[in-house]
Amino acid sequence: MRRTAHLIKTSVSVAALIGCLGMTTPITASAADAAAIEKGKKVAFDRKKGNCLACHQIEGGSLAGNIGPPLVAMKARFPDYDKMKAQIADARVNNPNTIMIPFGPHKVLSAEEIELVSQFIYTL
Fold first, then answer.
1. What domains are defined for the chain?
2. What is the distance in angstroms between the CA of the first residue and the CA of the last residue of the chain?
3. DSSP 34-59
4. If residue 23 lies in a helix (H) or strand (E), which one and from where to where?
5. pLDDT of 25-51, one tens digit each?
6. Alpha carbon of residue 65 to chain centroid
7. Could you report the per-residue pLDDT of 110-122, keeping only the tens digit for each?
8. What's the mean pLDDT in 55-70?
9. What is the spatial distance between Cα 22 and Cα 87, in angstroms, rounded to a whole number?
10. How far apart are CA 9 and CA 24, in angstroms?
11. CA–CA gap between residue 4 and residue 11 (Å, rounded)
12. Which of 41, 47, 66, 118 is 20 to 30 Å from 74 at the Cα level?
């Protein structure tokens, strides 16, 4: 009796999970989004602009630093895109003792460049 109840409960759980997976639709990036992400990557990798590779390991980058954390699984680390973007713009807001430069307040990157870099970083 217990085995049958367990089997039914497991089957219902699996069916519900499969049903939920079927309801999600894959998100595809448009050509404009892909172009913006590529521009953001160029700014992030540019040693005279974003220079993210000076401190962070990023897939596809060379001569990466190890001062900051590797930039992987960003959607899991920052479910809220705006919080991640704010972190890139001025990390001092969340951590006054950070060594990350405030790209926005110090005008290292424009608001548009911060947006482009944020879009790229969020894909990692």
1. 30-122 (1.10.760.10)
2. 48
3. HHHHHHHHHHHH-TTTT-GGGT---T
4. helix 2-23
5. 444 557 778 899 999 999 999 989 889
6. 18
7. 999 999 999 999 9
8. 89
9. 34
10. 23
11. 10
12. 47
Query: Which amino acid type is present at position 50?
Result: G
Amino acid (one-letter) located at 51: N
Residue 7 confidence (pLDDT): 56
Cα–Cα distances in Å, from 115 out to 27, 34, 36, 66?
Answer: 20, 14, 9, 24
3-state SS of 59-106? Answer: CCCCCCCCCCCCCCCHHHHCCCHHHHHHHHHCHHHCCCCCCCCCCCCC
How confident is the model at residue 1, as a pLDDT?
Answer: 55
User: What angle (nearest 5°) sits at the alpha carbon of residue 69, between those of residues 45 and 113?
Assistant: 35
Burial of 15 (C-beta count, 10 Å sphere; 0-12/13-18/19+): exposed
Write the single-letter amino acid at 36: A
Q: What's the rounded Cα separation, in Å, for the pair 9 and 15?
A: 10
CB 52 within 8 A of CB 45: yes
Whose CA is closest to 121, among 76, 66, 67?
A: 76
